[in-house]
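ok here's Carbon monoxide dehydrogenase:
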Amino acid sequence: MSDNYIYSAEKVIDELSRKPGFVDTAIKRWEKRDPKCGFGYKGICCRLCSNGPCRITPTQPVGICGATADTIVARNLLRAIAAGTSCYVHHCRNAANTLLSVAEGKSSYTIKDEEKLKKYAKKMGINTNKDIKRIAYEFATRVLNDLSKPYTEKAELVEKLSLPARVSTWKSLNIMPGGVNEEIIAALTKTSTNLNSDPVDMAVHCLRLGIITGIYGLELTCIMQDILLGSPKIASTYSNFGVIDQGYINLATIGGHQQVVSNRILEMASSKEWVKKAQEAGAKGFKIYGVTCVGQDYELRCASDKNSAFGGYVGNNFTQEYILGTGAIDLVFSEFNCTLPGIEPICKEYLVKQICLDDVAKKVGADLYQFQPEKADEYAAITLDEAIKAYKNRRGKVKIDVPTEKTPAMTGFTEDSIKGALGGSWKLLIDLIVKGDIKGVAGVVGCSNMAAKGHGIYGVELTKELIKRDILVLGNGCVGGNLENAGLYGLESIELAGPKLKEVCRKLNIPPVLNIGPCLSIGRIHIIAEEIAEELKVDVPQIPVVASAPQWLEEQALADGTFGVVLGLDLLLGTPPAVTGSNLITELLTSKLKDMVGARFIIEADPILGADAMESSIMERRKLLNI
Ligand code: SF4
Ligand code: FE2
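and the structure:
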């Protein structure tokens, strides 16, 4: 643990971990774990058939079937990316169906950002001189049509929503995706036993899935959530364990990204009618605390609303067991990913009610209310009723002991609000970049893991190093949770920035690390990068914008990381994906992709050297712009 963070999120976790009798957690299990399997780590283990599992060794360079290390690695990678893309598309489908339910008058959602709906409807070629619900209908229908097309037909919206220069590169590489669902099915089919054995063909399929993840899973989903839930505004807030207030009926949203029903729960919990019910039970009202990405999205959208029942963002994916272990939470609800099975015994021990709102994320011991936008109000009411019951049942029986550390942060930064703060266009940012006051922009995004130097260490060290070098950082996701609890999303972090960036941040009254919310906001980085490239009349690989998923964790991160690179952003990873057993695939990802799409994966275990690599990439790009 570094002792020079402004605030120490890791200190709270360390102290709780050392507390005698405190619950078991992923971080504790990580410390006790046996050494990693070297074959799995390199991606050269295959268990696709009953003659296996096979592993590649110097004396057994191919599997029983004859599959080489390159084939096995490519097959494993494509399967993993297909699963990650599938998760993103699941969310996109549910968001589009929710928009459709509004258009058809079948749910209680409304269109909260009409301007955004019209802006992107126009880009999609929809005539916007008509009733807003009709526009929403056509928007949702076009998204859903692309999902269900055959893979032999090209998905229509990729071209409409991307920079022409990118599209022509993608066309020349034959990676423009076909129908979304079928591209995922084709990936699963070709990676089954004794089907495709061509590592290059499978790697190219990974790139198509990357584009699908970016356009549908990230950008369109982000836009549809803004349309339905309202676009965020810049605000000041607090994070960390100290935001928890024991005077309320306390709910935690532990889950990532999808938040259609979750948002109704928050709105209902903020209503006078339900506050009264909570008061009748002896509490001051309801508070819903954010853990993982839905919490960050709540923070992004709600921190500016003083009447909201949002209680604050507490921490990321690996803090969830600690939060429940404090005893302060009455009910947990989850609508999608990043809910650790490790919370189940803790919920049982601490009498915490568990509710799941989509069967893809069903947990043991949880009640399931299957996702349907039409039933969101009914599910929200059930959830709040259950929270009241859990509150009455638990108080007095369960020991509550919550750390008090609170970290100031700013939130609400999006492609629109950043542009707004800069005077309405990207001109000021571009001028600052041209002058060298801001050397470049770096996304520090995605998950958190323990594998890269321990929980939250790599991402925080990398970010401090980047801002020290006058590089403006856009943070999000669970690594963003580490940045936030360490104080990097707050104005005090201006003092850690390099002299030029410090001046800029002081003038604009913004921190050098802008909190763009959940992982899903990687879609916002796509929009920002393309808008800047468009304004400069160049392609994305020429602009001084790079990214890192320093503590990537899961299949979805592999899918969205692939998108970042295909989009033209060099992408730093603190730990390698399971590909190092194949020279061909490793070489392709870390070098050859540069010639193909203008960007590559950078793998670097040391955050300072990682910052060196990101800075070099930015400097190369500045040269391409002659600045
Ligand atoms: Fe081994 Fe080939 Fe079967 Fe994989 S598919 S387990 S490499 S025999
Ligand atoms: Fe996330």
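+1. The chain has a mean pLDDT of 96.
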